[in-house]
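Lab notebook, bench 4. We co-purified these components, and the gel suggests they stay together. Before we commit to crystallization screens, I want a quick structural picture of the whole thing.
Request: model the full complex, all chains together.
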Amino acid sequence: MSAPRPQHAALLQFEVKDDSLYIGGIPLARLAQRVGQTPFYVYERRAMTERVALLRKHLPTDVHLHYAMKANPMPAVVQHMAGLVDGIDVASGGELHVALDTGMDPARISFAGPGKSDAELSCAIAAGIVLNLESEGEMERAALIGQRLGIQPQVAVRVNPDFELKSSGMKMGGGPKQFGVDAERVPQMLRRIAELELDFHGFHIFSGSQNLKAAAIQEAHEKTLALAIRLAQDAPRAPRIVNIGGGFGIPYFPGEERLDLEAVGANLRRLLEEARPQLGQAQIVIELGRYLVGEAGAYVCRVVDRKESRGQVYLVADGGLHHHLSASGNFGQVIRKNYPVVIGTRVAGGPRETASVVGPLCTPLDLLADQMELGQAQAGDLVVLLQSGAYGRTASPAAFLSHPTAVEVLV
Ligand SMILES: *Cc1c(COP(=O)(O)O)cnc(C)c1O
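Here is the predicted assembly.
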């Protein structure tokens, strides 16, 4: 008889033996003993390494891969990624320091994000990383700070494109946006860059996030390259970098299909062959966060209490939305859906039941699993939320209700 398959088999990135999850080759219960506390986040090196290898296999070989570290800024994770990818994208001065500590060549670190302070600009210019300018005002401030420091800032222009990435979880381009400079104003900005003491590197065009549709990404790649070629005509020099964004999504919910990476890669290869004569030597960059680390991580908490209310089973855990806002459905989701959840030592076998997993916070929002089919669990059992390697711990309101924070381990 074959072993029972968990409900989330398609989303289970980790090994299962004797109905227990193994992460980094360690049985979950043993891992929890090793960590010494719940709740914790665990990230697996192997899964990240394999994910980068998969991208290398399908994307054109001359495309550079950057890690957008806001998805998971744990220094050990960023260090591991630094050994696998071609560059790191940061979005704050704090992230910049972590990225520099990895030893990554500063020329391969870029800094995007609105509202960069003078202090952040100053550190970035001194470090020699590439600033993705988010506005004309930021351009002027960067030039002044560069003058004051006696260092020429390395800059690219973040463009708010005149199109959207269709069917995206989060749209970050097209229409009015706080990100980047509207495409139609970029030519004028490029003329100003030529007048200022700024070293122009190229363009950053990021249109959206969490996209599972190859056709939408293919369309965005085509429009992005066309836009870069058009804008390059007004640039003070030929662009050395064209960052075409990312937005590759991962499946979280039942019915979601994996992104067809092969199709995206093949289409991009064709587009780049066509565009090469006009793009010259420009390095094409794809920047990804979630796609690189999201599936490599899990959030683990422990059942503290098991109770019933009017016929429904509640597993009350020591973890909740204060560590994992996204799994509670409150991180930009319109409709709450269950993340893939398993009982760590009863992944697919044993008696099953329908139960809800809630956290210790005094709010009905603190819901990690709403009436899911799970292995029957008691106090002391480990609850595991899969697909939790991105936008987990650092995207959650840890101070809310003053519970202890979650620790993180990389295995
Ligand atoms: C957040 C962000 C990313 C990463 O997005 P993912 O969906 O995690 O891949 C990449 N680039 C920019 C500019 C971002 O703001």
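Residues 68, 70-71, 89, 91, 112, 206, 209-210, 246-247, 287-291, 390 surround pyridoxal-5'-phosphate (CB under 6 Å). Worth comparing against the SEC data before the next meeting. The chain has a mean pLDDT of 95.
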